[in-house]
Write a structure and sequence with these properties.
single chain; alpha/beta; two-stranded antiparallel sheet; 13 helices; 12% strand; globular
Length: 329
């Protein structure tokens, strides 16, 4: 008889001024029971310094169900953004976050929640990101942090930060993917009707397209669809540019403007995502996984897994392999 795994314990840190949207994102990702769809169990707790309900913007309120002491039991701590990013967090919250990080618990923030981590001293000497409109304020108020603007989310020394609004969803799904595998993250994304994967290194801001840019975007979308259907084949920027009817330089420029990343980086990320699925769903030998996803060799695949996932294909399979599905060759 199979045993039910212990739930992953997630602490949502709440205090007056946190954004209702971010609270909703955290609750939607970790607060919904999807075990009937193969998602592992989560235990999401709303933690605060006091038990009193916390008013949120829009006439909403959040009632804590644990004190900040519960952070000592958490596997992951998530800090929502703020309605006013310059409003200070309560001292007990900052102290609790510092203790949690000292214990080695991963701490993540959404949007302006980076200011809370910065006030706790957790961003000192570390790379961090927030909403692009708040970047200058974070740099000015916390010069010890290495603030960047060109990312959706970043990880540095067990500290995660993310950009605004939708990037918070990206980070939450990425954290699920890191802890439980790509298939679990994809299942949650499907139930939320959102994209299952955007790499954290994508640009935050993409200019609104003009009619000409719309035509270029259509051509690039067709190229991306072709690549995804033929991942096992070799692809060069020159060949993809020819398929789009552009010069290689123009293709690379429009590709980054449309997707927020370069053609090569996008291709590698898609190949890694495809390899993750095969490692989770099948018993295919590693060389065959590498061949089907376009890496060519197990060595190359292993190098990219180490760079992007900080693990090896073999260890990834050991951690996230499920019952193999049919080989659809």
């Amino acid at each position: 008889m199979a045993t039910t795994p212990d739930p992953t314990r997630i602490a949502l840190v709440a205090f007056p001024g946190v954004r209702a949207f971010d609270v909703s994102v955290i609750t939607e990702v970790w607060g919904v029971d999807r075990t009937d769809r193969g998602v592992p169990p989560f235990e999401l707790r709303r933690t605060a310094a006091e038990a009193a309900p916390i008013a949120l913007r829009g006439g909403l309120s959040l009632t804590p169900d644990r004190t900040l002491a519960w952070l000592a039991h958490a596997d992951l701590i998530v800090v929502p953004g703020l309605d006013d990013h310059l409003a200070p967090a309560p001292a007990p919250v900052l102290a609790a976050l510092r203790r949690a990080h000292t214990r080695g618990t991963p701490v993540a923030s959404l949007c302006g929640g980076a200011f809370t981590l910065a006030r706790a001293g957790l961003l000192d000497g570390r790379r961090a990101v927030t909403h692009w409109r708040l970047t200058d304020d974070l740099r000015a108020g916390h010069p010890e942090a290495k603030v960047t603007q060109d990312a959706l989310f970043l990880h540095d020394d067990n500290i995660w930060t993310s950009a605004g609004t939708a990037a918070g969803i990206d980070l939450c799904l990425h954290l699920v993917r890191t802890m439980h595998g790509a298939e679990t993250a994809a299942t949650i994304a499907r139930s939320m009707v959102t994209a299952p994967f955007r790499t954290g290194t994508q640009a935050q801001f993409i200019e609104h397209p003009t009619p000409r840019a719309d035509r270029d975007a259509d051509a690039l979308a067709a190229v991306r669809a072709f690549v995804l259907a033929h991942l096992a084949e070799p692809h060069t920027v020159a060949a993809l540019a020819a398929r789009a009817g552009m010069s290689p330089r123009s293709f690379a420029r429009h590709f980054q403007a449309t997707t927020g990343t370069t053609p090569l980086r996008w291709l590698i990320i898609q190949r890694i995502a495809a390899a993750q699925k095969l490692l989770e769903r099948t018993d295919l030998p590693l060389p065959e996984v590498a061949r089907r996803t376009g890496f060519g060799s197990e060595i190359t695949m292993r190098q990219h897994f180490a760079t992007h996932l900080s693990t090896s294909p073999r260890d990834y399979r050991l951690a996230f392999h499920r019952h193999p599905g049919p080989d659809r060759g």
